Amino acid sequence: MGEIPDSHPRKASLLARAKLTEAAREGLLAESAMIAHGRGEAFDYLLGERTSDSAKAAIKECAARLLAANNPVISMNGNTTVLAGKQAIRAAAIIGCPIEVNIYYRTPERIEKLITALESMKEEVAAEVDEKTKASVMAVEILGADADGKIDGLEGPRSICSRKGIESADVVLVPLEDGDRCEALVALDKQVLVVDLNPLSRTARTATVTIVDEVARALGEMEELLLQNPQPTDWDNQKTLREALDIISDSSKRI
Q1: Domain map of the chain by residue range?
Q2: Which residue from 64, 109, 163, 167 lies 20 to 30 Å from 144 (Cα-Cα)?
Q3: 11-48 b/e with 16+ CB inside 10 Å = b?
Q4: Is the four-CA dihedral 169, 173, 176, 178 of positive or negative sign?
Q5: What superfamily would CATH give domain 53-253?
Q6: What is the pTM of this model?
Q7: Nearest Cα to 55, choosing from 206, 187, 246, 255?
């Protein structure tokens, strides 16, 4: 891809597509990765390709719950690693929690490549910060290589997780659409915080807190809010979903 001028209204979207295309060539992504991304882009168009006020409130609530958790973990798949890996690492460094690579189409090769990619991103993030922050970044543990845990309520490869990560977590940040896993984790009395551009998905409707936003924007915003040490509230997730649907409805009326 040639250089895209900053004035191009689709620059962020085009760069995201280029990242995913390259990652797919390198074997980091499943064959369906671009389909999932395209579905999310369609909703982002309708949401105005910006972080709404209700999404910002949800991001703040997620930040508060991650900070208040006893055993928080951030779960990443291929797409989210490529699009928002650095943001997730910076957030995990502030929270003091691990990141677990947990993917739908699990193969040892993809797990290894994604873990290697995140470890490389850790080095890049560490090079951009001061010494104190660098230590926190390098301390972020990347889990997923050891398939020694199980998510009760799921079968086969979908149930695989890390014992030190998702299995023992009380709060799980899942920045992707994954309805089966979200339902199973909620059934295990875990708080599930999700980033999902589709407010009608099973994931969005099942989660404890849903951020209806693009993942890189959402995790970038979360990094700043974590530093403000917010406190959890009596959260009404259905209200957040209704507000996102209102934005989509208003967008369609302007056509």
Answers
A1: 53-253
A2: 64
A3: eebeebbeebeebbeeebbbeebeebbeebeebbebbe
A4: positive
A5: Phosphopantoate/pantothenate synthetase (3.40.50.12640)
A6: 0.90
A7: 246
